[in-house]
Fold this protein.
Amino acid sequence: MSGLDTIKDQPAVRRLESLLREGVLPHALLFTGMEGTGKFSAARMLAMALNCRRYDSEPNHDRARPCGACSACRKIRAGIHPDVLQIQPTRSFIRIDQIRDLIHAVSLKPYEARCRVAIVSEAHRMNPEAGNAMLKILEEPPEQTLIVLNAPQTSDLLPTIVSRCQHIRFHPIARERLAEILVEKHGVAPERAQVLSAAAEGSLSRALAMRDAHFEQRRNALIDIFDDLTQGPVARRLAFAEILAADKEMLEKSLEILKLYMRDLVVSRFQPQLIVNRDLAARIEQDSRRHRLENTMRMIEAVERAQKRIRANANSRLALEAMTLEMIDA
Ligand SMILES: [Zn+2]
């Protein structure tokens, strides 16, 4: 068990497995993709595969299938292997001291590993000094060491860093697969898993965060307000814009929730089995008859316009007011 079974259908994982089997791993890898798509798990799997003790007694054992049970595998999984170094931002940045410590560590022989692995999470948060120091490591790769940098996208990093790493892209996890993972590995009830996976847009960590944050309660509250809104006076709609704008952290998620619900109102008319908010199937079926189709379509467009403006750093309050003013179902 490599711990990678959950994301085994990622093309990135298959590529890593073939690099392991062929024994052609480079000195440095760059994993890109949004959070929750398995970048860290994959880096840890590499560390296990490179150091699994099982290969000592069974040299022909599949190089991409670490045992998960030997002392090396267990230490790596528990995050306590002395030669698997994990670097992540402290407060907002990865600072030069952290990379200096890394430079020192990789100048020594590994304690017990065949191949030391340094995993740099959120590498795009290296400040300029740290980035330049990292570049030095990449220019003169240390012996018996694999460096894995994780970041959302290549454009977030210095081009000189990107060019010295083999780049492997992690895709969002497919909706159905994500639902399966939630059920099988995290004990989420199947119906709830469908809802969370649809709203999490391919990120396991996002789905788990929503599970813990009582996502459904928030969603239901938003839908209640929305339903009330479309028939109500303008003042109420502007107040809704204000409520949404006030919670900056949740804003994007709230708009996504509204959009998914409206999408369900449309889908429910044609293929009710394809709605995302399956736990609300009865309500959505009723609501979809109450809202006019063309109005719902128009409101979805209004939400998308607001999302675009907010992402382009427009004044979010104004963008939301424009959106809620279009939310009329008359
Ligand atoms: Zn092992």
Remarks:
- The first strand starts at residue 28 and ends at 32.
- The chain has two domains: 5-169, 214-325.
- The chain is about 55% helix and 10% strand.
- The pocket of zinc ion is lined by residues 52-54, 66-70, 72-73 (CB under 6 Å).
